[in-house]
Specification:
Blueprint (H helix, E strand, L loop, with lengths): L11 E7 L16 E7 L1 E6 L2 E6 L6 E2 L12 E2 L19
Antiparallel strand pairs: 1-2, 1-5, 2-6, 3-4
Length: about 100
């Protein structure tokens, strides 16, 4: 559930996309475009533990932010770090409870 952002105006996730490059700009040779987070509103379905079904709003193959989504804003620059792992569980037991 760390991917899902709950707000009064709706639930959303952040999708990681290539940053749009201005064709008039002169990028360095061989430079890769950066990554940005795009907020995508979703419709959620059933949930069980840390797992939540997304019924509408994303498609297979899209890269979704899985940690730190609450810190992002639409268009935020992001760096993909796949070393950060989340451990979703069907029956989580938070330390503070």
């Amino acid at each position: 559930m760390t991917s899902l952002v709950h707000a009064s105006y709706g639930d959303s996730v952040f999708i990681v996309e290539d940053k749009k490059v201005d064709p008039a700009a002169d990028p360095a040779p061989g430079a890769k475009p950066g990554k940005v987070a795009r907020q995508q509103f979703v419709r959620v379905g059933a949930s069980r533990g840390d797992f939540v079904a997304i019924v509408d709003g994303v498609t297979a193959g899209q890269d979704i932010v899985s940690a730190g989504a609450f810190k992002l804003r639409n268009g935020s620059n992001v760096v993909v770090n796949n070393d950060v792992k989340v451990d979703p569980q069907l029956s989580p037991h938070p330390d503070n409870r």
